[in-house]
Amino acid sequence: MKLATWNVNSIRKRVAQVRAWLAREAPDVLLLQELKCEARDFPELDFAALGYRAEIVGQKAYNGVAVLARIPFEVRERELPGLASAGGDPLEARYLEIAAAGMVIGGLYAPNGNSGGVEGYRRKLRWLDALIAHGRALLAADTPLILAGDFNICPDDDDLAPGALAPDDALVRPESRARFRSLLWLGMTDALRALTPEGPLYTFWDYQAGAFAADRGLRIDHVLLSPTLAERLASANVDRAARAAEQPSDHAPVSVTLT
DNA sequence: ATGACCCGCGCAGCGGGA
Fold first, then answer.
1. Which domain holds residue A219?
2. Taking Cα atoms as reference points, which of A84, A59, A139 lies closest to residue A106?
3. Does residue A247 lie within 7 Å of nucleic acid chain B, judged by its CB?
């Protein structure tokens, strides 16, 4: 079982790259973020030709998440449960949850939290709180669970190049990092860190100022595994080659394989 | 060489990204 997550920064701009990556890597499931289009504009047929069925939660210009899978699956949720009652905005296309291969897989795009001032940051934290509550409920029922996507959190200092972000950036603020730790304390395993416990590990490099060439990156795309799935973890990789391609997304794909 | 990102939207330049 191979699962990957990729923030593509506009799916319509990235069809060729995603197609090439699917052909080369052949994941069973690929979670996509930042589609930046409505579902009807998602280039579904380009991926169907490679054997992938798509489910899309889209919105005009911003956000947007999708699943591409070549194994059977069914959709469980098209928005983050509990978010509306927690004061969040469920109209933002940020969560899509499926059941596949005996697992529940939540593909997510958490709010960045740097725009919209104090309220924008609060919205980010509320969104993450709803994710934690949802994860807690699933784990309480012993559901084999993967939560993966763009969390917009650098969990630790090894997860960003020195000086890549201001100390008060929403991606590294203590409240954001505490939310990530809460997910781990539920019993989830950070797949990349489980296999590379220390040292720099990045999944995003800014387009500006030669950040990729200088390896000034951030690790904000994560794959979290519930206990029984963590025991099956065989590999976890960041595909930097995809970031080095022509007209790349600013994020690289992250993939894991489970035995 | 005195500036150096990339999206969508929509046709200028702005908001958002991270």
1. 2-258
2. A139
3. yes
Q: By C-alpha distance, which of A119, A130, A59, A132 is closest to A91?
A: A59
- Number of domains into which chain A is organized: 1
**pTM as predicted:** 0.97
One-letter amino acid of A254: V
pLDDT of A124-179, one tens digit each?
A: 999 999 999 999 999 999 999 999 999 999 999 999 999 899 999 999 999 999 99
Angstrom distance, A210 CA to B3 C1': 14
CATH of the domain at A143: 3.60.10.10
Q: Report chain B positions within 7 A of protein CB atoms.
A: 4-9, 15-18
Q: Which of residues 107-166 of A touch strand B (CB under 7 A)?
A: 111-112, 114-116, 120, 150, 152
